[in-house]
């Protein structure tokens, strides 16, 4: 066996992959050739050095990689029943009110095209989910809007700013996002809100009055609003009477009926209006807090 042939077989000999009939010729050559014999030691030293470079990846690295290809979820028990919650390191991504994990996973894949791995829900997110589902509301929702479309993200962020205990109209939301003619689109986004309760789509009502429909049913919407402090019965009375706005005779300021400032108006000073144009014609100016004229054309 020549030196070139021996050198190409040294590593195979070291790893035990050398063909059986080549062992004897190779060893005979190494006994006669000191140069090739030294090469055996060099290859072994190189292999040892390479093995030393191999390290176990840190757990944080593993978690970082997994977070790029999948999201986490947890099941949260609330007084109103269990909910499944998907989340990322940026916040909540989906709240699903059902007992079926399979259905939850299917809904998540349909929305985001990403798999889910069970994880530990941060306590601050857990508290927000429980508070929202049980009807206490959340003042500063921690939601991951990264994968939302442009209009969808703007609408959901606007919903998040509607104060607890108050309602706004779909037309108002459309105006707030700079798309006054997109009232129907706003309604669709609210209906498909994947982070309900926390992002309060239940606080949006029709411009025509009443509380309107809800993905979980009108009774659930009514209960949520009442627990948050909305006088739903008053809204319904106003709706039947065609009243959409309420003004103060003393301040000449007009508000949505549920506005915190409107609730301070004494009965004898309350002035009902059927439309923003009517209030403006009588010299009333819009409340800076609830911006009731935002829906006026």
Note the topology.
Blueprint (H helix, E strand, L loop, with lengths): L2 H5 L2 H6 L7 H10 L1 H20 L5 H11 L1 E8 L2 E8 L2 E6 L4 H12 L3 E3 L4 H11 L16 H11 L7 E2 H7 L6 H9 L12 E2 L12 H10 L4 H10 L3 E4 L4 E3 L14 E4 L2 H6 L3 E2 L11
Please characterize this protein's 3D structure.
This protein starts with a helix and ends in an 11-residue tail after the last strand. The protein is built from 13 helices and ten strands. It is an alpha/beta fold. The model has no long low-confidence stretch (mean pLDDT 87). The strands form three sheets. It has a four-stranded mixed beta sheet. Strands 9-7-8-10 form a four-stranded mixed beta sheet. A two-stranded parallel ribbon has the order 5-6. It has four domains: 3-53; 59-133, Methylated DNA-protein cysteine methyltransferase domain (Double Stranded RNA Binding Domain), CATH 3.30.160.70; 148-239, Arc Repressor Mutant, subunit A, CATH 1.10.10; 243-297, DNA Methylphosphotriester Repair Domain (3-Layer(aba) Sandwich).
Question: In brief, what are we looking at here?
Answer:
Helix content is 43%, strand content 14%.
